[in-house]
Amino acid sequence: MGVHTYGLMGVDWEERVNFDRLRGERLGRAKAALAATELGGLLCFDMYNIRYITSTNIGEWARDKLSRFTLLPRGDEPIMWDFGSAARHHELYCPWLGGGRSRAGISLLRGAMTPDTGQAEDVALKIKRELEARGLHKAPLGVDVIELPILYALQKEGIKVVDGQQVMQAARRIKMRDEIILLNTACMMVDATYEKLYRAMRPGARENELVALAANTLYTLGSEDVEGVNAIGGERCSPHPHIFSDRALRPGDPAYFDIIHSYMGYRTCYYRSFAVGSASPALGDAYKRCREYLDMAIAMMKPGITTADIAGIWPRAQEFGFPNEEACFGLQYGHGVGLSVWEQPVISRLVSLDHPVSIEAGMVVALETFWPASDGWSAARIEEEVLVTETGHEVITRFPAETLLVAGAPYWTGTGPLPSTRELEPGLGGGR
Asked: Rounded to an integer, what distance in angstroms lies between the CA atom of residue 8 and that of residue 204?
């Protein structure tokens, strides 16, 4: 194993995650990506880009508010604007920002601040002053995501706003040593969560109860945010609804889960499939095919191949019941994982065959496959996270998934245990 698993504490007798190094290397990557462009600076409202550049965080409740922002000027250090009390906290406890670089400032809170407040114009003036002070106001300004009134206010001030997302994606694409350790640690927490889920799955357990168990396990282990737990059971498995419900599991049900959470900001995307009590031959066949497509992709992962090479071995949409690749997007899929759950590179027949991207050492890529069963209602879904190394790859998701696992206590009859492979038919409790 090339990637080490450590405890969650800092210790003096072993180097684990070096956060000073992590902060410096992330900012260095962002500066280098900016320097390779003609931009005068990067203005970021995306929480993930803000954290990458400034190593500040105020909790996941702010993730979708677009309320805080940072400016990384060309050739200079970042300036952070945040909720007033948060800005004061950064000033006291984030010395790497430097004096005077953590400031109070607020955007429009996704429209909650009405236009007459002048907040959009205030944000634009704050940015213009900093660019003018450095002679950068005539160069294009890269922005990742933005509320339209702020965009218009910047343009009114004579600032040319262009796409800055690709600059930050380029900076974040290759993971550094400490990022890899944190991603691996996040996977370890999901390993443990699947152990709890496997032991809890049985007839009568509801999807929402299993989501609660997963969230409790992750937060107890030290998760920073449980972004989502997909818990899908029974006839909800095909087509994949991408959301859990209050449905109770029944004997013979398929059940699959996707666990997305973060540790120190670094996320997982990690599916596993199970059968409850027993597995039908149809589900077993679907799982085998799902696993084959996944294993073929994993075996290919090494520097020098492209996303088109991987997407090309996956089945066409029409082979598993969809009219085109857009209709089944995300079912045979790959994506980078880092501070956000979907990063570059994206691997899909929808885009990769015509627009291939090279696979590079240091990428951490989640590969996920799906296959519907011939019974018309069950399905298999599996995902592994793969670190691309200089010579190949390493899988960092470790909960067993080589073959379909059957969860729940075995049933005993007068002549012995009920077979774990059992065809569900009308009259045997399996009528759908």
From this structure: 35
